[in-house]
Design a protein that fits this description.
two-stranded antiparallel sheet
């Protein structure tokens, strides 16, 4: 057993200098010879472990299992909401994560993962040292509108063929629709219910039940199923606001492009995103912290 700190480069170390065995057994009476706890898997989890659902999920679940076994977990559990991913800590253990994140980046997870790491003070240098090509790619993607790197000046700047997206990206889009679709629908319904409960709310009213000024405004409860598990959580108007941005892009499309968009969304099971349009817009006000989402003007019939 070792006593170390967060920056000592040892998996399981923490800033409180706690003792750890890294065997998956309780610290009490633990011996170095104790065997690692073996986890039990459902049929679906075993299929992922066996690579039947693709190498990306296989690598991801193996990482989660390895972490769980270190702390004595005997099975996986369903989450009650989407996790927030951040790596604002620094150990040598970051290296393997970055390799997996590169695979996730190929599945179009740039915004959720690499952009965050590229802006954090400690993970960014680790990524730069451990995976320099990935760091440069992340830096390039953070430019947003164009590529200005000399080494990429000869690379054609173009989007993927929307009618022939690569299979890993399609698989990810299907997963996104299956997992996020129910939450989106629950939030959309909660917003419509809030509008019905507040028919005379004037433009500029905060979309929240208690009118408090907070980062996460609760406009009701969202109840939905995620992979067979019933989730109950606060419904946020952020989802409505973000969906409006998508609708603005779709509304500006030509008839031909709208047809292609509809075809794509149906192919990934994203009909729920096609079928909803808020009956009254919301507006994001970000001039003063914290930001708030308020009612927009009434829609003329």
């Amino acid at each position: 057993m070792k006593k170390t700190d967060q920056l000592g480069g040892n998996i399981g170390a923490d800033c409180t200098h706690s003792m750890g065995t890294h065997t998956g057994h309780s610290k009490h009476k633990a011996k170095a010879s104790d065997p690692m706890v073996q986890m039990k898997f459902t049929a679906e989890e075993q299929d992922i472990m066996d690579g039947k659902k693709g190498p990306l999920l296989q690598k991801s679940i193996k990482t989660i299992i390895a972490y769980g076994q270190l702390f004595g977990a005997d099975s996986l559990v369903d989450l009650d909401h989407a996790p927030h991913l951040a790596m604002s800590w620094g150990t040598d253990a970051v290296g393997p994560f970055l390799k997996i994140y590169k695979e996730l980046a190929d599945a179009a997870l740039m915004e959720a993962i690499h952009a965050h790491l590229g802006r954090d003070a400690y993970p960014a240098p680790i990524m730069k040292k451990t995976a320099p090509a990935l760091f440069r790619w992340t830096e390039t993607m953070n430019y947003g509108h164009y590529v200005q790197d000399a080494e990429l000046s000869q690379v054609p700047q173009k989007y993927l063929d929307a009618d022939n997206l690569p299979k890993p990206l399609m698989d990810f889009l299907k997963l996104m629709a299956a997992d996020f679709g129910p939450l989106f629908e629950a939030n959309a319904k909660a917003y419509e219910a809030w509008l019905i409960a507040n028919p005379n709310a004037p433009e500029g009213t905060r979309v929240t039940n208690d009118q408090s000024r907070m980062n996460r405004q609760a406009m009701g409860r969202a109840v939905y199923k995620l992979q067979g598990v019933t989730i109950k959580r606060d419904a946020w108007p952020d989802t409505v606001n973000m969906h409006q941005y998508v609708l603005e892009v779709v509304d500006a499309m030509s008839a031909k492009d709208k047809a292609r968009w509809t075809k794509l969304m149906k192919s990934i099971g994203g009909e729920v995103f096609l079928g909803h349009r808020p009956s009254r817009p919301v507006v994001l006000q970000s001039e003063d912290a914290p930001y708030q989402i308020v009612l927009g003007p009434k829609v003329k019939k």
